[in-house]
Amino acid sequence: MAEAHEISIERTLDAPVDAVWRAWTEHLEEWWAPKPWTTRIVEQDLRAGGKSVLDMRGPDGEGGPMEGIFLEVTPQRRIVFTNILDGDWNPKSPQPVAIVGFFDLTDLGNGRTGYRAGARHWDADALECHRAMGFEQGWGIVADQLEAVARRLASADA
């Protein structure tokens, strides 16, 4: 069962779901990587089957392109993507993560959004490798950064 090899974070974001969705889809470069890392969108075709290429860089220039494909995009609700395939549906070298991430949004009312981000792995070893890389801490940081962008967008709308 996939859930047996899944790690995730859950948050309640202090912003309405439409602002969180816009932050995710229109302002990803502002929050995707934990600061001081940066993200530049090279290509982002936000639809099922669409290609994604992000260039992530650390403060000393480390990092590089991360290419994948979107498997599901349900507006204001869910995004699922993988890096096991490139944008042309070619298998890449074996990756420890089958589905890199999924993001579920739930409108909680009163301008708040339930946010869940997770990663499903082939096996327990791949999960532990991802965990050792700091999945929960890193994705927690970017969830806070996402919330800050969404709050700014919601304030501008008010």
Describe this structure in words.
The protein has helices spanning 17-26, 28-31, 124-132, 135-157; strands at residues 6-13, 38-44, 51-57, 63-74, 78-82, 97-109, 112-121. It is an alpha+beta fold. The model has no long low-confidence stretch (mean pLDDT 88). Helix 1 (17-26) crosses helix 4 (135-157). It is globular. It starts with 5 loop residues before the first strand and ends with a helix. Helix content is 29%, strand content 39%. The chain has 4 helices and 7 strands; from the N terminus they run E-H-H-E-E-E-E-E-E-H-H. The chain has a 7-stranded antiparallel sheet.
What is this structure, in a nutshell?
The protein is an alpha+beta fold and 158 residues long. Helix content is 29%, strand content 39%.
SSE topology:
Blueprint: E1 6-13, H1 17-26, H2 28-31, E2 38-44, E3 51-57, E4 63-74, E5 78-82, E6 97-109, E7 112-121, H3 124-132, H4 135-157
Antiparallel strand pairs: 1-7, 2-3, 3-4, 4-5, 5-6, 6-7
Helix pairs in contact: 1-4
Encode the helix/strand succession as letters: EHHEEEEEEHH
Strand order of the largest sheet: 1-7-6-5-4-3-2
Share of helix among residues?
Answer: 25-40%
| Shape descriptor | globular
Give a count of the beta strands, DSSP E runs of length 2 or more: 7
> What is the end-to-end distance?
44 Å
Biggest sheet record: 7 strands, antiparallel
Structural class: alpha+beta
Mean pLDDT: 88
> Count of helices?
4
Low-confidence stretches: none
